[in-house]
Design goal:
The structure holds two protein chains of two kinds.
Chain A: H1 16-26, H2 34-45, H3 50-60, H4 64-73, E1 85-90, H5 93-97, H6 100-111, E2 124-129, E3 141-143, E4 146-148, H7 153-163, H8 169-174
Parallel strand pairs in A: 1-2
Antiparallel strand pairs in A: 1-3, 3-4
Helix pairs in contact in A: 1-2, 2-3, 3-4, 6-7
Chain B: H1 7-21, E1 26-31, H2 34-38, H3 41-54, E2 61-66, E3 78-81, E4 86-88, H4 96-101, H5 118-121, H6 139-144, H7 149-157, H8 160-170, H9 182-191, E5 199-204, H10 213-220, H11 222-236, E6 240-245, H12 250-265, E7 281-286, H13 296-303, E8 327-331, H14 332-344, H15 346-350, E9 360-367, E10 373-378, H16 383-390, E11 400-405, E12 411-414, H17 424-429, E13 438-443, H18 448-462, H19 468-485, H20 491-507, H21 511-515, H22 518-526, H23 528-536, H24 547-554
Parallel strand pairs in B: 1-2, 5-6, 5-8, 6-7, 9-13
Antiparallel strand pairs in B: 1-3, 3-4, 9-10, 11-12, 11-13
Helix pairs in contact in B: 7-11, 7-14, 8-9, 8-11, 10-11, 10-12, 11-14, 18-19, 19-20
Classes of the chains: A alpha+beta, B alpha/beta.
Chain lengths: 175, 555
């Protein structure tokens, strides 16, 4: 028996929706598949936009409010598109003790962004992580998914330099 | 395909594997756990492999990716086995030719990491016995090391009661932090009646910042955890299991997924395991970055697809857990202790450790200490031995100040307690907790007010918002700490801070709120003079606080 006659149709013919559908199907389209489905959306599209949230809500027969609630509750989910490159500074205890704040400041100086922001040209996003578990190599930074250990403010600047042209920081500061 | 397997067949797999490696003269083990991988040990492994090939040594020498060898600070680590074993540190791909040429001859002196040092000799390995030895991506290697023997023995020769009795006898206590007796938990779940089945859950949501023990176990020896879960499921009568693991640990997730698939393929998971009536399916659920999901009821809510918010207990998950059914939840390290207990007996395990805390504990040693990495030590070892012998002391000749255990729920233990034995009770007595095993060493460059503020900032952001004492209280405590750190507080603020800590501790719904004041209370208890210095002299001895303020004032 079909519980609902109208089945949710994918928002577009983007093939990535097939991955999302596969995850939901694997869990029998049960409401409990919500978090797993959101993981697949984020993995496929990079972030969760309103269209995706509504599609998942409809497919799993979960209220939109709950989908929104869950996706904002968990830090791992992001509702904003990320930059071309991501720089995740670990702010766990070991990294904090070994100067993670200096790394954040270095990125701030080099790219003129704060944690959670993306440069205006969309090149680099600066994020923080609670702990990436590389405490033995603190302070750690994840550059585009690759963990680097014993990072110094200089090496952060070098990575950023590879990704983006220097931003005119001085003009911004002097205002 | 479902295959029934018995102990004989398991031994055959082990023997076949042992025969395959017998003709080898050398095994070169390269650590491919996350820490060494981030210093490009994958390139080292590839370089070693092509070098072995270039020398035509494929039949004599095998290059093997293995799990964590412990001393992460000296990574990437490579160990060469032959007549005697040599460990190499900070190996790069360029070192591969030298290492391969040295096989059977003198080791490459410039890379040698002496293993006759307390960091290695002071450890006792039970949970990590296979880490750094076996290839975590091959079930055959695990079986050759005696893996799954305990599961098959339990299923074919022991009743669930006998399994639980053995665990009870061992005195094993939950390694997630609270230290609840594991055997007792198992028997509660076993006794709970349920017509629609029971569940086992493995809590791998290692949220404590500064802790990476579970990650290492999952990356280095995933089958060990599956075996422990399967024995637990058999003992309590569950046939469905979930591993709730952090999405931030992609390598651990991948190895777990592979391990589950391999175990299903040879019939160690699935239906009618070993021709018995016991069936078990294990699935992975990804966490999504919420510290509170380490709390068992919040974790269950998350598996059910909801916001990870805890609920009042009782009923405990043992009676009413996942989807309202009896559920056994244990931490990664707890499950990893099960197979050796069944193999060697509960009495053997109970012979290790102290009167009330049995066995060993894995600690992630980090912060201002020379040897950062993963250690497994018997319960009852002193903190001084951990920090100064195994840890090699404080770098740059600085002075030790405190060691922080238990993450945001724990506290800072000052120098006067360094000779105290490490067990659940002693740590609680001095205002900290065992916690999951993160151990962060701090020296004189750390300001204790700032440390307390750091943890409170963490708890404030991680509070799920369900109960008011935690949601509002942690925010206010953080504000007060900021005020003190900025040199804007007076004596009455200190009194308010203490009252607030007391209130949050006693009125919060779950462990997060109840233990959130611990870092503040313990620093107030042992480093009160630092608070006074900030309040009365507007001065920070370590020079970390008020620095921003001065900059701000000048702008």
């Amino acid at each position: 028996m079909q519980p609902f006659a109208s089945k949710a149709t994918a928002p577009s013919d983007d093939r990535r929706w097939k991955l999302v559908d596969a995850t939901m199907r694997k869990h029998g389209n049960e409401p409990s598949a919500l978090i797993e489905s959101l993981h697949t959306v984020q993995e496929s599209f990079g972030f969760l936009d309103d269209i995706a949230l509504r599609y998942v809500a409809q497919s799993l027969r979960v209220p939109y409010s709950k989908v929104y609630g869950v996706s904002t509750f968990y830090h791992f989910f992001t509702l904003k598109p990320q930059g071309e490159h991501t720089c995740v500074v670990c702010t766990g205890t070991a990294c904090y003790i070994k100067g993670a704040q200096r790394l954040l400041d270095a990125v701030g100086d080099a790219a003129a962004i704060k944690a959670g922001e993306t440069t205006s040209d969309g090149k680099v996003s600066l994020l923080t992580a609670r702990c990436v578990g590389s405490c033995g190599l603190a302070p750690a930074v994840v550059f585009d998914g690759q963990v680097a250990g014993k990072v110094t403010p200089d090496s952060v600047s070098k990575w950023l330099g590879k990704w983006t042209k220097p931003v005119e920081v001085h003009a911004a500061v002097e205002q | 395909m479902e295959v029934a397997l018995n102990l004989e067949e398991l031994k055959q797999i082990a023997e076949a594997e042992q025969e395959a490696v017998a003709p080898l003269e050398h095994t070169v083990r390269v650590c491919v756990a996350a820490s060494c991988l981030s210093s490009r040990s994958d390139q080292v492994k590839a370089a070693l492999e092509s070098e072995v090939k270039a020398h035509g040594l494929e039949h004599k020498c095998k290059v093997k990716g293995v799990g964590c060898m412990g001393l992460c600070a000296a990574g990437p680590l490579v160990e060469v086995d032959g007549e005697q074993s040599t460990m190499y540190q900070s190996v790069t791909a360029e070192d591969a030719p030298a290492i391969v040429e040295s096989l059977g001859k003198e080791p490459v002196a410039r890379l040698v990491l002496p293993t006759a040092q307390p960091f290695f000799s002071g450890q006792k390995k039970i949970v990590l016995e296979n880490s750094g030895i076996i290839d975590p991506e091959r079930i055959e290697d695990y079986i050759a090391a005696g893996g799954y023997e305990s599961l098959v023995t339990a299923l074919t020769t022991m009743t669930p009661h006998e399994v639980i009795d053995e665990v009870k006898k061992s005195g094993l206590r939950g390694r997630g932090g609270a230290g609840y007796p594991t055997g007792l938990k198992w028997s509660t779940v076993q006794k709970a009646a349920s017509e629609d089945g029971k569940y086992v859950i493995c809590n791998a949501d290692e949220g404590d910042p500064g802790a990476f023990m579970d990650r290492s176990v999952l990356e280095s020896d995933p089958h060990r955890v599956l075996e422990g879960m399967a024995i637990g499921a058999y003992a309590v009568g569950a046939n469905k299991g979930y591993i709730y693991v952090r999405a931030e640990y992609p390598l651990a997730v991948k190895r777990l997924r592979d391990a589950i698939r391999q175990a299903e393929r040879i019939g160690l998971l699935g239906n009618d395991i070993c021709d018995t009536r016991f069936s078990l399916r294990i699935e992975i659920r990804l966490g999504a970055g919420a510290f509170v999901c380490g709390e068992e009821t919040a974790l269950i809510a998350s598996i059910e697809g909801n916001r990870g918010q805890p609920r009042p207990r009782p009923p405990y998950p043992a009676q009413s857990g996942l989807w309202g059914r009896p559920t056994l939840i244990n931490n990664v390290e707890t499950y990893a202790n099960i197979a050796p207990i069944i193999r060697n007996g509960g009495d053997w395990f109970a012979g290790i450790g102290t009167k009330k805390s049995k066995g060993t504990k894995v600690f992630a040693l980090a912060g201002r200490v020379n040897n950062t990495g993963l250690i497994e030590v018997p319960m009852g070892i002193t903190l001084r031995d951990i920090v100064f012998k195994l840890g090699g002391g404080i770098p740059e000749g600085r002075k030790f100040k405190a060691v922080q255990t238990g993450g945001p729920s724990g506290g800072c233990v000052p120098e006067q307690f360094l000779d105290m034995p490490v067990d659940y009770e002693s740590l609680a007595e001095v205002g900290s907790i065992m916690g999951s095993g993160g151990m962060i060493v701090m020296d004189e460059t750390s300001c204790m007010v700032d440390v307390a503020k750091f943890f409170m900032d963490f708890c404030r952001t991680e509070s799920c918002g369900k109960c008011i004492p935690c949601r509002v209280g942690t925010g206010h405590i953080h504000n007060l700490l900021s005020k003190i750190a900025d040199g804007e507080a007076d004596a009455s603020d200190l009194e308010l801070l203490e009252r607030l800590c007391d209130m949050v501790r006693h009125t919060s719904l779950c462990g997060l709120g109840q233990s959130a004041p611990n870092p503040v209370s313990s620093t107030l208890r042992y480093f009160r003079d630092e608070y006074h210095e900030h309040i009365e002299n507007k001065h920070c001895g370590a020079g970390t606080c008020m620095a921003h303020k001065t900059v701000g004032a000048g702008a």
